[in-house]
Known about the structure:
Layout: H1 2-33, H2 36-39, E1 41-43, E2 46-48, E3 55-62, E4 66-69, E5 72-76, E6 82-87, E7 91-97, E8 102-104, E9 107-109, E10 117-125, H3 169-176, E11 191-195, E12 200-201, E13 214-219, E14 224-227, H4 270-280, H5 293-297, E15 322-328, E16 335-340, E17 346-351, E18 361-363
Amino acid sequence: MRTAESGGFLGMLVSACWWLLVLVSATAVLNGCLSSADYGEELDGKSTAKPTLSSHEVTSEAGVGGDVDPSRVIVEHGETVTFTVTPESGYRIDSVTGCGGSISGNTYTTGSITEDCVVSARFTTAQGVGGHYALGTLNDTGIDWCADGDTNNLTCPVAGYPGQDGEFGRDAAARAGTLEKVGAGAAGFDFTKISNSGAELPASATLGDGPNNWACTRDNVTGLIWEVKTTDRGLRDRNNNYSWYQPDGPNMGNPGRQDGGNCVGSACDTHGFVQAVNDEGLCGASDWRLPTVDELHSITHLGRIRPAIDRDFFPNTPSTSPFWSASPYVERSDYAWRVNFGFNGHEYWSPMSDHRRVRLVRIGQ
């Protein structure tokens, strides 16, 4: 009996151990199937799903001067994803490519995602050496006519006088009716009116103080946005004038003369005017600044005089008075460059204590 009982007990013990082994093995398999890697991994402090056969991984990379967010995302097959592209101070977006997308402002939207891909953003400096800011494509001169030895404003081409300015570029294409524009403008210029709140307006919009009234002009060729002068005897009135004072920017060791002009609404120097306009948030922005000589030249219309500018988009421009630039004169620390819109955008230097007009600018996105 003892032998039988021992055999029965031993059989039960073996059976119990076998079932325990099965349970342990099943638990190990289950734990392997449900590991954290299959739920997702921690990336930048966020739980991010792992790609499956029906999803794809979209990553982003940014060059020097900015950032792209998010850095990684998993999307289902055929879906799109958006990224926010943010340049650092002193930089602007140069290009964003990858995943068949397009950019609008600071938002990059991919095409339909059908495979893993990378969104790449590159940035360029907004300000270079000596206060020279980067421009986009250059404007043409505005001269859409030709001349002979005696007469201007002749139809191009003129026999015996080949290769004239009016025969080439955007101006010639505009004259021929083949130039496509985003907005409107004389000759090859392409401008869009911007409201006090920062919205695009039709070419028929009028100046005013309301949020939907015209206050700024965007150059669709260079990408610059310009302040428009007024006649309301206020902060941006056409008759206000300022001394050149630039304590924070390039100044050849001489910041200039403070509050030396005649104006309304701000300290009557270039720095004070910039601060007042930024505090006002003109056209929804607060990064207005003094333009460089090159930037002022970019809106000079050499086919017109008194003033040499497109008056439909830059009204209230005095016919003779020069406008200050941000560019100091390298040979004299108490002088700075200005541009005269009276005839041909003539540039010259003046003492910083002189009273000159100012038209502010900013880089659009």
